[in-house]
Amino acid sequence: MSSREASWGATSRGLAGSWTVFWLAFVAFTAVAVSWALASPIFSVPDESAHVIKAIGQVHGEVVGHREAGVRHLVVDLPQQFSFSSQTMCFVYHSEVPASCGIEVGDPRGATEAASWVSTYNPIYYYLVGWPSLFLGGPAGIYAMRIASAILGGLLFAAAFQAATASRRAWWLPAGLGFLALPMVGYLNGSVNPNGVEIVSAVALTAGLLGLLGTFDPARFEPSALRRGHLWAIVTVAAILLANARALGPLWVVVIVALCFVACGWQSVRGLFVTARSYIWLAIIAAGGLFSIGWTLAGGSLSGQAEKADAPLVDAGFLQGATYMVRATPRFAVEALGYFGWFDAPLPGYAFWFAVAALAVLAVLALATARRREFVVLVIAVGVAALLPVLVQASSVHQTGIIWQGRYGLFLYLSVILLFAWVLSRGGGDRIAFLSVRLTWTIGALLWIFGALAFLLTLRRYVIGNAEPIGQMLKDPQWQPPLGWPVLLALFLIASAAFVVLVGAAAQRLARSDASIRELTTT
Known about the structure:
63% of the residues lie in helices and 2% in strands. It has 19 helices and 4 strands. The protein starts with a helix and ends with a helix. The N terminus is likely disordered.
């Protein structure tokens, strides 16, 4: 090992390779997600009512529900403390109605049987987040399930952060990870919805696999603070969780792995497959993927034939569905950035410019500095992110109609953003590495402002309704979340600021370490 590699290994033990970094990243992300978990009224997150019913029924022994005459979806028996009433969701679809109109979960007027259209979904996620309902009932039980989901997301983010910053040439990767501060990420991870774990597991898989593949290319070997087995563990856990998050999970794993293979090149891929120990990890991943596929095929969790009233373009053809999806792509991008509730809590247009500016900084720099091969990789990644949702939805439009939403593609968009940061760190971007610290802080600040606006305006929608002036939140709040909305707003602002400090400080430490090694090798 060269003096350069030895110096990096010694320096990085207190950086990405240390468990201190892991736990700091875990706390920062989890605090943001928990803020969203407490600020969002119960069942205000899309499809959360169905996922909660599924999770509670499953951990209480009813894994897939049962049939009831005259009921379209499978029915789950609920404990009395979780009795369900549609009146709990009286504010859904009505942006002017605050969340105070409903009755609480567990109210005697609710029913102890409830239908869920996700009853046959893969059970792994629901076991991971449903267990608090064994100990707590009513709203407290659901908030506890949300917090369990936030903790799961925090662990995955911490693993991604550790893997991404474990290499010396990771100048821009903290900036890429900073996009997990997008409000939809915390919002979904702070809810009972597998969409959240799908997003963060995809990012962890991307970060872990890019780091792992770098260790198999002797010509471009870069010392890592993490052992190869550690990186394999991150890749394996993330791949299995992503594969089992939803029915299309195995496809998402294949897509992300393919993008990482293309980015790292043949020598890295060949090195992985000619190493005998790789097949132990690959076998575990394959087993997780086969479980997902087997459950989907045996359990019938692929969507059945929809009715005309369920969604647009039911019974339409592939071309008609593809045309619709292409035209709707800008709308899906807006939804992915921040469209809350059951499409009843939109953000004003001006708020999005902060997120767009942050994204533009990273994208323009990566494209402008990329060498020919890296430029082709980025074009392929953007093409996959744009076309994959079109192809997936168009291929099933006859059966399901158009059911795609922007949040469904967020796992892929964030993985591609991280790939941009990776290319910028390893391609021609080394010429502007001196800008990485300042621009990482700039990106973080822009995303902090965007997140703060999203959190405040979403709170307003539920506290007083969108029809009332925002000042009414102080004068006459109609609904209050646990701890009260002012306390939660303060908690979110502090937690999201800590997240920005985390990524900014990581960029600073990487830059200082790299400067020290360059000075050592020139003396």
